[in-house]
Fold these 2 entries.
Entry 1:
Amino acid sequence: MVEKPDVGELAPPNRTLMGPGPSDVHPRVLRAMSTPLVGHLDPSFIDIMNEVQELLRYTFRTDNQWTIPVSGTGSASMEAAVGNLVEPGDTMLVPTNGYFGDRMASMAERAGGEVVTVDAPWGEPLDPVAVETAFDEYSPDVFGFVHAETSTGVLQPSVPELTSIAHENDALVVADTVTSLGGVEFRADEWDVDVAYSGPQKCLSCPPGASPLTLNDAAMDKVLSRETQPRSWYLDLSLLEGYWGEERAYHHTAPITNVYALREALRLVAEEGIEERWARHRSIASALKAGVESMGLEMNAPEEYWLPSLNTVRVPDGVDDGAVIEYLLEEYDLEIASGLGALAGDIWRIGCMGHSARAKNVSYLMTALGDALTEQGAGVDVEAGLAATSDAL
C-alpha cells in the first residue's frame, strides 16, 4: 500500500543568483505571478498577450509581426526556431565554437536537415571569412549563430557582416540571443536577423516558462510554405499562428502566470530603456571584471569579445573549481557555475544579468570569491580585487 507522503512546507533557500541563469527575479515580477488566473482565451488575457508582443518587439528591436513568447523554456523557443525553419532536404550551417552551437546542430538533425559546420575554437567568435568560405563550400539554406555563447563568455561581433553573407547566398539567419536579449546590444531589424530566440531567465530576470521568439516575413513565409509538417505538433508555428495571430484560436493552454511574469519583466526593460539597460550591464560587469583581474585571475574571453552578461573566469592552478562553487553556496548562499563541455573544470561562469546586475551583488560576490579562494590557498590579492571593484562601481 502506498503511504501518504509527509512533505513539509516549501522553503527553498534565499540564494543570490550569479550563475549562467536563472538570475535574481525582480520583486515586481514575483508579485505579478501572484495575481489571479484567467482563462487563456479570456478577453483580458488576449489584451495581455497583445501587450507582451509589443514589449517583446521593443526588446528585440524589431517590427516583426510574428513576435511571441513560446510556452516553454529557452530550449523550446530554440527548437521552435530550428525545427520550423529546417525541413528534410535543407542544409543548416552551425558554429563549433561553443556548447549551444552543438545543440543547434542536434535540433537541425532531428528536424531532418543536413548539418554542416563553420569551425572556430571554443572561446573565440566566428570569423566572417570562415563563414563565407563555408557558404561557398556547402550552400546552406539556414545559418545559425550564437550571439552570446553562455559556455565560453564570448560575444559575437560583426553580426551585420554575418547576416549579409548569408543573405547574399539566399540563406535565412537564426540568432541565439538567450544570454544577450535585454542585457547586451542586439538589433534584430537593423542587423537583418531573420529569426531570433531567447530565454526569459537570464537578462530579463524572469522565471523560465515563456520564451521570446521573433521571425520576420521571409522566415515566416518559409515556415508556412513547408512541404512537410514540423515533427513537433506543440511547437508548429503554423498552428501557433492561430493562437498568437489575429484569430486567437485555441491551440494549447498557455502558461498564464509565466506570461504575467514576462509582461512585468518586459515592462521593467521598457521603463529603464533598452539602451540604458545595455549600458548598466556593461558598467556593472566591468566592475566585476576589474575586480577579478586585479585579484590576479584571468578572464577566458579576450577583451574584444568579452560578454558582460556572462563572465568566464579561468580557474587558477591548484584550485578545485567545484570546491569553490560548493563553498560559495554553503557559506554565502551565492550561486556561480562551472564550465561546460571543452571548458569543464577550467572556468567559472559568473552571470551579471538583469536584476542580478547590481552593485551590491558584485561587491558581495567579490568578497565571497576572495574568501573561497583564500580557503583554497590560492595566490590571489583579495584586497586589490575588492579595491578595484569598489573603484569601478
Entry 2:
Amino acid sequence: MKKQWNLLLALIVVLVIAIFSVINVEPVTVNYLFGKADWPLILVIIGSVLLGALLAGLIGMMKIYQLQKALKRAENNNVDDNS
C-alpha cells in the first residue's frame, strides 16, 4: 500500500510541475559564466527539476553504497568475533 501512495504522490508532484511549466512559457535570459542565452521558461523549469532529481538520486545512491559497505564490514567483524 505504501508504494501506491508513493506513486500517487509522485504523479501529483509531476502534474503540478507540468502545469506550472506550461503556465510559464515566456522567454527568459539565462546568464552563463561565458555568455547569455534566451530560453523559454518552461525548459528552464523542467531542466532544473530534472537536474535536481538527478543530483538527489546520485547522492542517495552514494549513501546506499556507503551503508552497504559498512554493513559488509560489520558482518565480517561479527563472523570473525564468533570464530
